[in-house]
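Input record, target 12 of the design panel.
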């Protein structure tokens, strides 16, 4: 059973710019250090990615997996789940919830991963916190470094 973790960060940019970076999967390797490949495998009719194949190398975790995505009409919520178990994951579900107030977007990242190998709870929580902290900080840095 996967435990759910949630963290938030404020990004000094409008929701539309934050969502655009999140949805631009092929560019993830440019700014997300652990992601070595992000390849859109299927698209919806509107051009948004339906399924994305990832290859990650986060030192302690090396894996390849495919996520299936769903989007709120206004892109205020982007959610995903693991299509099939991978080498290290039995399941993964997650979401980004975006709320804009006065040109600042609060990004709330929720993630639940059920690993294929056992890991002590204390180490698991520390690893999840590190992964989420890094992901949010890298997203913030990418979005805020883009021209307005």
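The sequence produced for target 12 reads:
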């Amino acid at each position: 059973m996967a435990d759910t973790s949630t963290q938030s960060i404020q990004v000094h940019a409008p929701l539309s710019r934050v969502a655009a970076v999140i949805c631009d999967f092929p560019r993830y390797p440019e700014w997300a250090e652990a992601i070595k490949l992000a390849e859109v495998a299927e698209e919806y009719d509107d051009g948004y990615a339906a399924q994305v194949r990832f290859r990650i190398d986060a030192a302690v975790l090396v894996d390849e997996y495919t996520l299936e995505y769903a989007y709120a009409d206004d892109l205020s919520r982007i959610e995903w789940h693991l299509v099939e178990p991978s080498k290290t994951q039995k399941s993964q579900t997650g979401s980004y919830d975006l709320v804009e107030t006065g040109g600042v977007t609060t990004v709330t990242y929720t993630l639940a991963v059920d690993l294929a190998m056992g890991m002590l709870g204390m180490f698991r929580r520390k690893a999840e916190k590190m992964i989420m902290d890094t992901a949010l900080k890298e997203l913030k840095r990418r979005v805020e470094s883009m021209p307005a």
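The beta strands are 4-11, 35-43, 49-57, 62-71, 77-82, 89-101, 104-115.
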